[in-house]
Design a protein that fits this description.
Number of domains: 1
Helix content: over 70%
Strand content: under 5%
Shape: globular
Radius of gyration: 19 Å
Structural class: mainly alpha
Strand order of the largest sheet: 1-2
Number of strands: 2
Largest sheet: 2 strands, antiparallel
């Protein structure tokens, strides 16, 4: 149950991204600055956290051993995840971006065959290729059905071009985030903790973000003070708190594709949190009856996923002791 609760908390803090990105876009801020500033502001906080715990050198050694792999999967997991998310904010409301993002529930499950898992066989533990968790995937479809109801009425009011530009980039992000997350878990092999892994991905993606920042400077000049403050808030809530909570949750179930699918399914609540946030901050109208029905379906799907996650497949190996340490405070 702990990974599910951590996932829900991360969804709450991730929702800040969708609301503030939309707010910055409506006020004339560049999507390039919104995305790059988040990771530029996140970097010093992560460096302080990791260095303060005396774990910076082990991370740097790991990255020095396989620099190209870190560069690739850090850029995929963070760069190709967040840049499309902020770009989509220019063409769609936060609730629609958050709703489309829920495709990551299915994306994460479909990536299972790309990874090896530990299974206890007759000759001891062995590595086998993961399988798509069919039952978990069906439960994910229930959640997606709720998401579809949640945004149905709103999507009908938007121009087709706006819908596509608000959806396609998020579809790319939905595959990039779980892929980069899981690939870096393989790179670490349990040798790094959550903070080290997030810092490693942030450092590895920094060349990408510097290029994006140059694009923002070329297109709109330097960011405004308001955009910098809001980007800092996004960096703290989503870049630090939410990311650490989500990565910690996935670490706890790293040897179970079913568990990973359940944790990734908790991100469906971002839709609800983003909707509430837009109502409070951007004065968006209250949801219709159809939207409330979608919220109810999402919650039901979440309960089913939580129950299903406790039924581990036969022979599945639980996370090692080192992966179960308590999550340090990041506030």
């Amino acid at each position: 149950m702990k990974p599910i609760l951590l996932g829900i908390c991360s969804a709450l803090f991730f929702a800040v991204t969708f609301v503030l990105n939309r707010r910055m876009e409506l006020s004339g801020g560049s999507w390039a600055w919104s995305s790059s500033l988040r990771y530029i502001f996140t970097l010093p906080f992560l460096l302080a956290l990791v260095a303060g715990r005396g774990r910076l050198r082990p991370l740097l050694r790991e990255m020095a051993d396989r620099p190209l792999a870190w560069l690739l999967w850090g850029t995929v997991g963070f760069g190709l995840f967040y840049a499309p998310i902020t770009f989509a904010a220019a063409y769609a409301p936060g609730w629609l971006t958050a709703g489309t993002w829920q495709i990551t529930i299915i994306s994460g499950s479909l990536l299972a065959p790309l990874f090896l898992t530990n299974v206890q066989g007759a000759n001891g533990s062995e590595r086998v290729r993961g399988r798509i968790p069919v039952r978990g995937l069906l439960l994910s479809l229930i959640i997606l059905a709720g998401v579809a109801l949640l945004q149905l009425e709103h999507a009908q009011k938007l121009p087709e071009s706006q819908v596509l530009l608000g959806i396609v980039p998020v579809l790319i992000a939905s595959f990039a985030y779980p892929l980069g997350n899981r690939k870096t878990m393989e790179l670490c092999g349990g040798r790094l903790d959550v903070f080290q892994r997030i810092l490693g991905m942030t450092l590895a993606s920094m060349p990408f973000w510097l290029i994006v920042a140059l694009i923002g400077w070329r297109d709109s000049g330097l960011p405004s003070g308001s955009q910098m403050i809001q980007s800092l808030l996004v960096a703290l809530s989503s870049g630090i708190v939410a990311t650490v909570l989500f990565f910690r949750a996935t670490d706890l179930v790293r040897h179970s594709m079913t568990g990973l699918a359940a944790v990734e399914a908790t991100q469906s609540l971002e839709v609800l949190f983003a909707l509430i946030g837009e109502m409070l901050i951007l004065s968006s109208p209250a949801p219709s009856l159809i939207s409330w029905a979608g919220i109810a379906v999402i919650i039901c799907g979440m309960v089913l996923h939580s129950l299903f996650a406790h039924k581990e497949p036969a022979g599945a190996k639980s996370a090692p002791r080192g992966e179960r340490e308590e999550l340090p405070s990041v506030q």
